[in-house]
Amino acid sequence: MKIFSLITLCVITSAHKITQLKVPLYADPRRAAELSCHFEMDDQKLHSVKWYRDTQEIFRYNPSQKPPIRLYNASGITVQSGDCQTDSCLVRVMPPPLATRAAYTCEVSTEGPKFQIARQTKHMTVVAMPEKDPVIIGARKLVRPGEQLHLNCTSDYSLPPSDINWYIDNELQKPGVWERTELSAPELGGLRASWRILRIVVPPTASGALSVRCEAILLVEPPVIRDVTAIVTIHSRTQLSKYVSNTGNSKMIKVIFLKMFVFSVALKIHFYLKIIEK
User: Fold this and answer.
1) Which InterPro entries match (predicted)?
2) Residue (of 127, 128, 120) closest to 103 by Cα position
3) 9, 12, 13, 16: CA torsion to nearest 10
4) Does residue 262 carry a pLDDT above 80?
């Protein structure tokens, strides 16, 4: 008898179900996000469809009431609109301008006397991705040993703001006291740009080139990374002396060729004058 009752209960509770729940994994705070819930009622009569953000109700559809749709603004979000059919409900919400993660639940219930409930939940994170790579300012193409470089890396606007790391030849540079990531004032949707400076001294014995890389990390799951690399060429004293020497030699050769050309022209003029005199 108990086994039969359990089987009967399973059949009844599975008579209506949610077939598809669509909740964006990421939502941009500058744009409305669409949430949709699709369900099958079979032989059951729909009582209501409710949407929750975490534990707070934000939307209710009850076809037997007037008006059938009610919107509830809660937790800093704005519910813009809703549209329900016999087998689905779509809700548009404006996410808060904060880097938050929340659970969105669709709840479909039947009419009495059973008042059975089907629920599904998915999470949505408020994120605004940077649209551009970071930019490095101050990385000269040519430096000498012992020179000091003042670099600035600025990331694009995002939410949450990007954290910035510096790498020299793939070695992470630990920030000094005055070299922490700084943030701009918030723009539309709470987006901020970020930047970080780096001061380095080219080693006196260095030669060749330095690879300077700036990495902007958006701390979401999974992390989003955008980076940019600048190559700085180092001219050592030996290289500079060779350059100067080669430059001096080339100038001397040019002077010699110029003198030879002038001498040959003068010689030709001398011969022409001799011919004319005869």
Assistant:
1) Ig-like_dom, Ig-like_dom_sf, Ig-like_fold
2) 120
3) 170
4) no
